Amino acid sequence: MTRAFLFTVSTLLALSGLAPAVAQTDDWRAPVLALLEQRARAVLDGDEAAFMATMEGAPRTFREQRRTWFFRMQDLPVDRYALEPGLHTYEDLAPALARLPAGDEVHVIEVDERMGLAGYDAEPALETIYFTVVRRGDRWSIVADEDLEDLGFLSARAMWDFAPVRITERDGVMVIYQGNRSQAEQIRDATIDAVGRVQDDWPLRWRPRVVVMIPRSADDLARILGTTIDLGPFVAFAASNAYRDAQGSYDLVGYRIFVQPDTFFGYSRSFQAETLGHEMLHYATRPIAGAFTTSWLEEGVAQIFGERGSLRVPDLARDARSISGLPEDHRFFIGPNIHRSYQASAHFMRYVRDRFGTNRAARFYRAVGAESTVSLGTDRYHLDRAARRVLDTGFDALERAWLRSVREEF
Known about the structure:
Elements: H1 2-16, H2 29-45, H3 48-53, H4 60-73, E1 78-85, E2 105-117, E3 125-136, E4 139-144, E5 166-170, E6 173-177, H5 181-201, E7 210-214, H6 218-225, E8 236-244, E9 250-259, H7 261-264, H8 269-285, H9 295-306, H10 314-318, H11 338-356, H12 358-369, H13 379-390, H14 395-409
Parallel strand pairs: 6-7, 7-9
Antiparallel strand pairs: 1-2, 2-3, 3-4, 5-6, 8-9
Helix pairs in contact: 5-8, 8-9, 9-11, 11-12, 11-14, 12-13
């Protein structure tokens, strides 16, 4: 929603004549694409000179920041790296610039950054960067990637943007960290245990190659995730980004587990283990999640199949008479009833598991994720299709039956 609004603003500025005049040639895309390819190849090859040559006309501060990023990247097992104009992106955002950098031609391009970690990423991760590119004479240069931050267009930032990173790795788990090594090794070993638990409890196959990231602080983590949500109440996150190809298919790529360092290590080892089990279930389901996989389905499955502690639902029990259905997606991030939203989700998925069995509960999740993104219908329409196909009941009837069970229980 935010991006659509901002695009409308910049379009109106251009039409009204308030946007700065931008010189433009008809063939700028080809040399800019070549510039991006040179930069990506330099990252893969560890070629500092070629990398810096893509920023010849940039301010010194930007060049030095990116040089530092480049050297820190060399400590990572990167086997794929590409910078590509996205299939579903803004072609040029230069009309939104408040002031143009000096040059004969200026564009702001939205670029897909694809990075794969060797042995872990089946498909490269996907992030977005907003490069300002400038032509002076016949030479093109990347000169900035923060020019539109005031409008909410944030270029991706990774842990190595903020500080050097180190790695500890064992048995298919890689932890990328910036703090205490013993804590990182503790997380690594606890994650290995969580992988085993999810393999035992989740009936569908998945690829247990896991990347865990421990940034320096919650503030760094918020910038990495690109969120303004207060991360204080949270302990860990499973993160990925959606990739859409030219045919409109929907895939999640770049699976990562992020530990919120300001809170995670303040809890007991048993709570940390439950948290990692929860996030590991999210990790395991990334390949089969889809555009219509709702937050309550995600969180309910993660709690029932990823955590082994007894299910406690005090908020749900207190409000049982007033609940009219499963929580909307935004209820998991804002508002006074976040805990109740998680509890309702877990209670619903336990009800589905107990009524239909473990395998059918998991297949219901997979069926929702398999619903086509190019088909018509609301989230509930696709939930209903999946419920009828796997559970032999309509979703509305299933939700009503669960609500009756809640009121009978409490």
